[in-house]
Write a structure and sequence with these properties.
Layout (H helix, E strand, L loop, with lengths): L7 H10 L7 H18 L27 E7 L7 H17 L2 E7 L10 E2 L1 H5 L19 E3 L6 H9 L4 E2 H11 L3 E5 L5 E2 L9 E5 L8 H7 L4 E4 L2 H8 L5 E3 L6 H16 L9 H5 L2 H4 L25 E6 L11 H14 L5 E7 L2 H8 L17 H7 L7 E5 L4 H10 L2 E4 L8 H8 L4 E4 L2 H6 L3 E4 L3 E5 L4 E5 L2 H14 L3 H17 L2 H22 L19 E4 L13 E4 L4 E3 L1 H12 L8 E4 L30 E4 H7 L6 H10 L6 E4 L4 E3 L2 H10 L1
């Protein structure tokens, strides 16, 4: 069965098939664009100010089996960059370091970190590096609890991954870092696919802290999630969904600290109160200064105020509706369209209630400016992602004095002050993995209007969670979320507008504040991870004998198959546990044991990766069939002869089949998006076309 994996004739045919002369013009243009972008990323140089970085000396090889001392957090960017994940990781690592005596590290992922020289850095040292698009660490920032890791030196595998998916770390990078720096466990915060799977197993316990966004875990998400040692859901409903796929899952939310929010709000307000124009204004008038923060709107008089103080001093007469959140998704996951329509419906049905809609967000280009080390703005020709908020509001034909569109990045103190001084936070998202805004508003006593789905349903205590109108299916993303109900959200606004000052509602608000203080404390989150890290180590130790990467010999296909077999050119939706999928025609006999042995030997080889493989098939006479279709026989679909069986990674197939359900289109698409060195040809011997008599017998065997 042991035959050479490299076949010169097959390889040359493969190169011809995927050469530019064969590819269509759009594919050539796409590949040229990817090549240009990858060159731009690769040329970004990291260097110290006037000093050449000394080469990193790896620590002596050491058996750290069973140890749990050095913990690394994997996250996009650095702790001092914009984003809740950065803040969560920074404070969690600090508490694990101070209270549980872990040595804590930070490993960045993202387009701008692949060229950091290998090494272990302090916060100040890595801040003194001068890459593009990374801001300096503030002088008063405390990073004493962290050491920062440069990614391991690139291999031929990780070099390609960095070009194809620069925003992700790869499994092999995580594994190499564990060996290079002696890391005992990793915590990865982000979507399931933020680690590119170019290996079978993690070499040390690796925990996925997941904000899941769909109704079920399926397709590529299911395949990817199973590879982690342990999974942690950010909400109870997410944890329940993950439990349908794997049993080793826990619920640990982000932490919420109302004291930090209120302190930041007060610190910002102290400075603002001293300004000349704010001398006679209430705090709410300072926070919600419509003419200051919505300069595009010219029709309002300069004396206009979004808020008015009542005569008896009991809060504000105006019902201030705050719709605040990110806006970078074309699918409008945050539900901006519904929020704005619902406010318009609320105004139409309840004109007697004084009200004001304050829309606060920022564009994706503004986030890019925040992430730029020199504070440079994004180029004007770069169109922002997300939805047109100002256009949505103006389409509703609302009176100009009842809304403000505030599109800008503000200091954290002002953002906190908006949540403290609003009457309600309007947040009817299609789905939330956690919903930071929802909980932060409630933590300072402000009610919320949300959608009754996933984390929003779990975490709405002070407010109303509105049942959705229907499902919204997202074929390209492999799942579905919900469509919020405009009329239901409008009714919820009216109910809170009328009842928010009642004793009953004030008690509900107070109870929610206490619940959040206990349920979402940093100490509780850190204690949860201390426990999960120990469980992950136990799970990892128990799984070691069964890891494919640890097996010197391939397991028997009959006992432990590593690929799922199908003879259907339109395969069913990927829901199997095997790491690969093998397709072959019904009239082709395949030696599965031989294929399993060859696949295992190749994919567990150090520094090797297979993104797609073909098994050279013999005809009924035993003669190898040409791989490439002759030009005269090309039918516009099949570039290679269909007798050759195809091997695809399950997660890659699951991701591709949403748009390419026909197996030969799937393979062709993956071939066009893969580096040719990782497209393999298995030599003749494992597959052969059968004669009609054999077909009947083989069909019965299958």
């Amino acid at each position: 069965k042991k035959e050479r994996m490299q076949n010169s004739g097959s390889s040359s045919r493969l190169r011809r098939c995927f050469s530019p002369t064969v590819l269509t013009r759009p594919v050539v243009l796409l590949l040229l664009f990817v090549f240009f972008v990858s060159i731009q990323q690769t040329n970004a140089q990291w260097h110290t100010s006037g000093k050449k970085a000394a080469p990193f000396k790896a620590r002596k090889s050491e058996d750290r089996s069973g140890k749990l001392e050095n913990i690394a957090f994997v996250c996009a960017g650095f702790p001092w960059m914009y984003g809740p994940y950065q803040m969560q990781g920074d404070q969690l690592m600090k508490r694990l370091n101070e209270k549980y005596n872990f040595n804590t590290y930070w490993m960045m992922r993202g387009n701008n970190v692949h060229n950091i020289p290998p090494g272990v850095y302090t916060g100040r040292e890595i801040s003194n590096l001068t890459p593009p698009q990374v801001p300096k660490m503030p002088h008063d920032w405390d990073a004493s609890h962290l050491k920062f890791l440069g990614l391991p030196a690139r291999t031929k595998v990780t070099s390609v991954i960095a070009r194809v998916n620069g925003a992700a770390a790869s499994m092999s990078e995580v594994n190499d870092a564990s060996k290079l720096y002696g890391i005992d466990a990793f915590i990865v915060l982000g979507d399931i696919n933020v680690v590119y799977h170019d290996s079978y197993d993690f070499k040390v316990p690796t925990i996925a802290w997941v904000p899941f966004h769909y109704n079920t875990v399926r397709g590529s998400n299911k395949a990817l999630l199973k590879s982690y040692t342990y999974a942690v859901g950010l909400s109870p409903s997410t944890t329940k969904v993950i439990a349908d796929v794997r049993s080793d899952v826990a619920y640990i939310p982000h932490f919420i600290d109302a004291n930090v929010l209120e302190s930041a709000a007060e610190t910002w307000l102290k400075k603002e109160r001293r300004l000349k124009g704010n001398k006679n204004k209430s705090d709410r008038e300072i926070v919600f200064d419509a003419n200051k923060y919505d300069k595009m709107f010219k029709r309002r008089p300069s004396s206009f105020s979004a808020v008015e103080t009542s005569q008896d001093g009991d809060n504000d007469d105006v019902f201030l509706v705050l719709a605040s959140g990110t806006n970078y998704e074309g699918a409008d996951r945050k539900g901006w369209d519904v929020a704005i329509q619902a406010f318009a419906k609320f105004h139409e049905t309840h004109p007697e209630i004084k009200k004001h809609l304050w829309v606060h967000s920022f564009s994706s280009t503004q986030v890019m400016r925040d992430h730029d080390g020199n504070g440079n703005k994004a180029p004007p020709e770069l169109a922002p992602q997300g939805v047109d908020l100002r256009g949505l509001v103006q389409e509703m034909d609302l009176p100009p004095d009842i809304y403000t569109v505030d599109i800008d990045l503000h200091p954290r103190g002002r953002v906190a002050a908006m949540k403290v001084h609003a009457d309600v936070c309007l947040h009817p998202s299609k789905v939330e993995g956690f919903g930071m805004n929802v909980l932060e508003c409630q933590s300072v006593g402000t009610p919320v209007v949300t959608t009754k789905f996933r984390a929003m349903e779990d975490f709405t205590r002070n407010g109303i969670s509105v049942p959705p109108a229907q499902w919204e299916h997202l074929a390209a993303l492999g799942g579905k979320w919900v469509m919020p109900d405009v009329k239901g959200v409008a009714k919820a606004l009216a109910e809170i507008g009328k009842k928010r000052k009642t004793a009953e509602w004030k008690k509900k608000s107070k109870d929610a504040v206490e619940w959040i203080k206990e349920e979402f404390s940093l100490d509780r989150v850190a204690a949860g991870f201390d426990g999960v890290l120990k469980l992950a180590l136990e799970t990892h130790t128990n799984n070691l004998p069964f890891m494919l990467s640890k097996m010197k010999e391939a397991p028997s296909f009959a006992e432990r198959p590593i690929f799922h077999v199908t003879t259907d050119v339109h395969p069913k939706q990927a829901d199997w546990d095997e790491e690969w999928m093998l397709y072959h025609r019904p009239d082709v006999r395949v030696d599965y044991e031989m294929v399993q042995e060859m696949l295992h030997d190749l994919t567990t080889k150090e520094g090797e990766m297979v993104s797609l493989a073909f098994i050279v098939c013999k005809d009924v006479r035993g003669i190898p069939i040409e791989f490439q279709v002759e030009e005269r026989d090309y039918d516009g679909v099949h570039r290679f002869n269909t007798e050759h069986p195809i091997l695809l990674p399950t997660w890659a197939f699951a991701q591709a089949q949403q748009n390419f359900p026909y197996i030969h289109n799937t393979a062709w698409m993956l071939a066009g998006n893969s580096d040719q060195q990782f497209i393999k040809m298995f030599p003749p011997g494992a597959a052969q076309v059968m004669n009609p008599i054999e077909i009947k017998t083989y069909s019965d065997e299958l």
